[in-house]
Input
Amino acid sequence: LPFGMDLERFLPSPAVETEVRAIRARHGHRLVLFVGRLIYFKGLDYLLDAMPQVDGRLLLIGDGPLRRSLEDRASRLGVAARVAFLGRLSDEDLTAHLHACDLLVLPSSHASEGFGIVQLEAHACGKPTVCTEVGTGTSFANLDGITGLVVPSRNPEALARAITRLLDDASLRQKLGEAAKRRVTTEFSLERLRSRLLEIYAEAVAAC
Output
């Protein structure tokens, strides 16, 4: 069974569009977004290590036990002015940030990251993602060269190159984002989940 997502939640309502403009006015452009708990397997230390090589701003949504150490790391790397720790946000604010960003990044460092549903949420908003290959479902949720870019894990240089490639190429971002939105609509909607579930029930009944 595929994941079934309520895609209507990610539609840009007038309130969301207003907040998108406010986010861009507040943080500027070339916005890279991370969403998730600030814990070890998310690979945020590698993402911060990549930021000195990235001409852009990083917005981190979420909280967790590593927040203080990550804030200290950003300061040591000299990128604190371009990294914003936003903490936990409401669903509406999350949707607004997904629409406001240029791309989402999921820099996972361990196989504890099983899938990365947040990538599908970004895709629902028409945004490409950069993720790492950790041997799980992250590179199925995000198809390399189709809905985003996939790079080796624990590799700040590879992360920086992929992020910069998307930030510098608006047409590529648009192409991947549009493909990502089509895929999440056809493969990961609630309608697709219901349809596949009914198919499985029919197959089970037929086998009785």
The mean pLDDT is 95. DSSP finds nine helices and six strands in the chain.
